[in-house]
Design brief:
Elements lengths: L1 H23 L30 H7 L26 E7 L2 E6 L2 E5 L33 E3 L10 H10 L3 E5 L2 H7 L5 E4 L4 E3 L5 E5 L19 E6 L2 E5 L8 H8 L2 E7 L6 H4 L6 H11 L3 E5 L13 H12 L5 E2 L6 E3 L2
Parallel strand pairs: 3-4, 4-5, 5-6, 10-11, 11-12, 12-13
Antiparallel strand pairs: 1-2, 1-14, 2-3, 7-8, 8-9, 9-10
Helix pairs in contact: 5-7, 7-8
Length: 343
C-alpha cells in the first residue's frame, strides 16, 4: 500500500513538474534559419557560451560579496515631460532600466518595478532598494526596448502596467513577442540582429548583436533571440547593450554607428570563471566604451539585485579603477533616480 502511494505521489510530482515547466517556458521562435539561428536555437556570433564550470558548481562554491538588507534612498525628481532641440537626457532608474529622452521621444529600457526577478512573488532574487523614480512620476512613455527574456529584463508585471497607462511601442528581438502576447501585452515589434524599424517620428531603432543567452525555464534555453539596440535620430545615436559578455560586436557596432551615448552593464560579473561569457566586467565595459567610440557612457546593471558574487560596492569601485587606468574617459556612474543631460 505504501509502495503504491509512493508511486502515485511520484507520478503526481512528475506531472506537476511538467505542467510547471510548460507554464514557465517561453514560446519558441519559429522562422527561417540564419547565421545565428539553426531552426531551433539561436547562438552567439562566437558560438555557444562556454563556462569553466557548471551553474551547480557555482551555487555550491559561491562566495557572495556584501549587500545590505535594504538601502533607504530618496526618489529622484520627476523627469521632464520631453527633451528636444538636439538634447539627450538619460535617467538611471534601477538595474538595466533607464529613461532615454531624445528628439521629443521617451524610451524606457528593460523596465522593472517588481519586487523580485522571478516568475513568482515569494521567491527569487529580490531588490535591495526601491526604483530611483516612482512609476507614477514617469513621463508618458512612447517606446520600450526589451533586450531578452530573462526575468530581470522582461518583467511582465511592469510591461502590463505600462500597457495600461501609455500603450507604448515595444521593440524586442525575435520570438519574445509571443511570450508578451500570452500575457496580454501587445503593440510589439520583433527585430533580428541588424534589422531596423521606425520608432516614433524620425527616430529609428536597430537591433544589434550581444553575447548572451535566453531562458525562462529549463527547456527553452536560446529558443528566442537576445540583443542590444541603437536608437538613432536627429540628435545622434544611443546604444543600449542589454546583457552581454565580451565580443567583437562592440567594435562592429562602433564601426556602423557613431555613438553619442552608450548604456553599458557593469554588474553580476563574479565569479569570472562562470560569468565571463555572459556578463562583461567593469574593465571590459571601459574597453567596450573605447571600441564603440562612444562620446559618453553610462553604467547600468548594478546596485539593485544581487545576481552574482560581486557585492554592492564592487562594480562601481572596479569601474572607477578601470576608468582611471584608461585615462579618464567620460564614463558616468549615476545615482539611481539621477538624470543628466548628455553633451
Amino acid at each position: 500500500m505504501r509502495r503504491r502511494a509512493a508511486k502515485v505521489l511520484a507520478g503526481v510530482a512528475a506531472l506537476a513538474g511538467v505542467v510547471l515547466e510548460r507554464w514557465l517556458s517561453a514560446p519558441r521562435y519559429r522562422g527561417s534559419r540564419s547565421d545565428h539561428f539553426d531552426g531551433a536555437r539561436f547562438h552567439n556570433p562566437a558560438g555557444a557560451l562556454k563556462h569553466d564550470g557548471s551553474f551547480l558548481e557555482w551555487q555550491l562554491t559561491k562566495e557572495r560579496g556584501w549587500w545590505p538588507e535594504w538601502i533607504d534612498a530618496p526618489y529622484g525628481p520627476p523627469p521632464p515631460a520631453r527633451v528636444g532641440g538636439g538634447g539627450i537626457r538619460v535617467t538611471f532608474i534601477n538595474h538595466a532600466t533607464l529613461l532615454v529622452q531624445v528628439d521629443d521621444v521617451n524610451i524606457l529600457t528593460d523596465p522593472i518595478w517588481s519586487e523580485r526577478t522571478s516568475p513568482v512573488t515569494f521567491a527569487g532574487p529580490r531588490r535591495h532598494r526601491a526604483p530611483g523614480i516612482r512609476f507614477q512620476d514617469l513621463p508618458r512613455i512612447d517606446a520600450v526596448l526589451v533586450s531578452h527574456n530573462h526575468y530581470d529584463h522582461l518583467d511582465v508585471a511592469t510591461l502590463r502596467r505600462l500597457r495600461l497607462r501609455d500603450r507604448p511601442r515595444i521593440i524586442t528581438p525575435l520570438g519574445n513577442g509571443a511570450l508578451m502576447a500570452r500575457n496580454g501585452i501587445d503593440n510589439v515589434t520583433e527585430l533580428d540582429w541588424w534589422q531596423a524599424a521606425p520608432l516614433v517620428g524620425e527616430t529609428t531603432v536597430t537591433c544589434v548583436p550581444a553575447q548572451h543567452f535566453s531562458a525562462r525555464a529549463l527547456s527553452d534555453r536560446d529558443a528566442n533571440l537576445w540583443g542590444g539596440f541603437v536608437v538613432g535620430g536627429r540628435s545622434g545615436n544611443v546604444y543600449f547593450a542589454g546583457d552581454t559578455g565580451w565580443g567583437g560586436h562592440f567594435a562592429e557596432i562602433g564601426a556602423r554607428f557613431p555613438i553619442r551615448l552608450a548604456l553599458l552593464p557593469i554588474g553580476a560579473y563574479k565569479p569570472r570563471w562562470f560569468m565571463r561569457s555572459a556578463h562583461v566586467d567593469p574593465a571590459e565595459a571601459v574597453e567596450a566604451h573605447k571600441q564603440l567610440g562612444a562620446a559618453t557612457s553610462v553604467a547600468m546593471h548594478f546596485g539593485t539585485f544581487q545576481l552574482g558574487d560581486d557585492g554592492l560596492v564592487d562594480p562601481v569601485r572596479d569601474l572607477r579603477d578601470a576608468i582611471a587606468a584608461a585615462g579618464e574617459p567620460r564614463f558616468w556612474v549615476l545615482e539611481q533616480g539621477e538624470g543628466r543631460d548628455v553633451p
